[in-house]
Amino acid sequence: MLKHQHINRVTLLIILISIYVCGCGRAGAITRESESDPLDNSTLTGEQALTKGNEYLESYADGLINYKDCYDYLLEAKNTSATVKEVDGLLTKLDVIFESKKAYAMAEASLKNADYAEAIKYYALVVPEDKENYALSKGEITKLLDKVLIQAEELASTYFYTQAIEVLEECNSHISNQQLSDRILQYETALKAYECYEAPVDHIFFHSLIADVDRAFDGGYQEEGYNKWMCTVEEASQIFNYLYERQYVLISIHELYDIVKEDDQVTLKSKELRFPKGKKPIVLSLDDINYYKFMENEGFADRLVVDDNGKVSNVYIDQEGKEWIGRTYDIIPLLDQFVEEHPDFSYKGAKGTIALTGYEGILGYRTDLYDSETIVQDTEEALKVVEVLKKTGWNFACHGYGHLDVGKISLNTLKKDTAKWKKEVMSLIGDTNVYIYPYGGAVYPEDPKFDYLLEEGFNVLCGVSGYQYNRFKDSAFLMSRRNIDGYTLHYRPKLLEDLIDPYEVIDKRRPAFDYTS
Description:
The protein is α/β, with parallel strands linked by helices and 517 residues long. 43% of the residues lie in helices and 15% in strands. It has helices at residues 9-21, 46-61, 67-77, 84-112, 116-123, 134-157, 161-175, 178-192, 213-216, 223-229, 233-245, 331-341, 375-391, 411-429, 448-455, 486-491, 502-505, and strands at residues 194-196, 202-206, 248-250, 257-262, 265-270, 274-276, 280-287, 303-306, 312-317, 323-326, 352-356, 394-398, 434-436, 460-464, 470-473, 476-483. Strand 4 and strand 5 form a beta hairpin. Helix 2 packs parallel to helix 4 and helix 4 runs antiparallel to helix 5. The longest helix is centred in the N-terminal third of the chain and has 29 residues, at 84-112. The radius of gyration is 32 Å and the shape is elongated.
């Protein structure tokens, strides 16, 4: 999201000092050749001093001399026979021009920060008497209007209508432009069309995508697992298109609840969700974006990286061992690209929740190997990826350290697993209150393991189910997820028909399914 970047105090101080003491050095400027000339006005009549004062003021207005020289001369002019009232009038004009030049400098600083609305505000404060900057300011306002309209449209395209209106109103309050007024009305109308969305919000999830079906489906011992639990890149691309065409919009899981604190007790309550009419919110999560060792040389991406353009991409190693960097090898960069092309597929910039284990590091980096010679480098690279992911609409969840079925393990084992996850994974990705059960093995209230997860700060708990439910129970938000993978596409396609056309989506290159296993 675009945000205002206001000029800080240090920048403002530098601007004021430069306006006050720095001469422009232009040809034709009035300059002091000695300490007594021309500020010694003892030989001038009052009329001559005022004439010279006006010349100084004009030179300052034209940017030919600095404020200090002009101000000093006018103070000296008070020692002549000129009336104090007349000189004070010139000093008042000097102050007006000074404030105008200050506004111009602040507009230029705002422009460097790409804060176009604030730049327009300051350009609009430049007065006609400031001959150096007035025409330039008018020209800049004309150019910046288009940029402000584009900025507002970018905000509105991802449903930040309120922020878009604020940007436009800030400009309109200073320059009163019909284009701005029309656009404000357009966005206010869109906001009024929002409706209270009361149906359960869908939550779908994927694993890493198969980039090379020939290597994944080569008859190896992992083929059956890949066939059941993974989608191909081609399938995911079609799924995004179907969801978009059917008016689904990605929304953050954190938009679905409010956190209420009462008497040191934290509870989660359903949050009223007002959503654009005709659109349907959907939550997306991704499991095991760790790039495990068993996936090496199997047709999957190798790891996530930040590319030369500052975007998250994948490193992919082909069958010949050559490394490629691209955005079409796995689901995170693939979805990022889709949202770039279809910004209205994302509500306020949301992408999805990345559920990580830790037993073989995260995001393709072996951050679990403390005796590794590359542990420092791996950690640094992982942190770079995490930072960009957070800035671009992704958030994180715990998927257990060892990918253990919480429903089957003991409470003591869960405690050890969670402690290790917090030490090795949460220390890299930051705090999260979302726990996504490995294998979908959920536990429920009255189970000591459920209470333990709440105590550890995990109060958004997600299992797996063929149907959708959103429930609030014992200070927690419980949400089911629907798996989109080869198993569902092939064995249970009817469960997905409201979202996509599974019969069209399924990759025909998949091997035959063994119905007996």
